[in-house]
Amino acid sequence: MGHFTPHESVWINDGRFYDPFRPSVEPDGFTSEEEVRCMRKAHLAAVAAMLADADVFVFTFGLTEAWTNTEDGAVYPTCPGTIAGTFDSSRHKFVNFTVSDVVADTRKFIALARTFNPRMRFLFTVSPVPLTATASGWHVLPATVTQSRFFERFVASFP
Prior knowledge:
By secondary structure, the chain is an alpha+beta fold. The protein contains 3 helices and 7 strands. The chain has a 3-stranded antiparallel beta sheet, with no helix packed on it. A two-stranded antiparallel sheet has the order 1-2. The longest helix has 21 residues, at 33-53. The relative contact order is 0.15.
């Protein structure tokens, strides 16, 4: 929406170009940085139109684990270097968001979405899909149980 300019706006792998925020949207990558930026602009315009027209916004919460950029706070859907990009431990950090983090971000999203459409209602669901891998250092079983307890606390945060 133009409120944030990430430090890493394009990842390059083997001469192909990837959107760090949608790295698998074009599995073989794009042909140029310009194409990545053009497709991102079109995607964000479609999101803005969807927010303006939606009566109900349905969102399914999933994992709380993510990778962030320590320089600008950008949050990536995958660890840099797994689909595209290059992992740099001085720039990329694993984060397991807390209930407070997710509640705060959800409230910010609701406020932002209502700037497009004040009448929009929200329906939130929780994914039943367990973790298949984790960077938390735990086995996936306790990490998944922790996710379940997380969402119990999250739901209690909204009256």
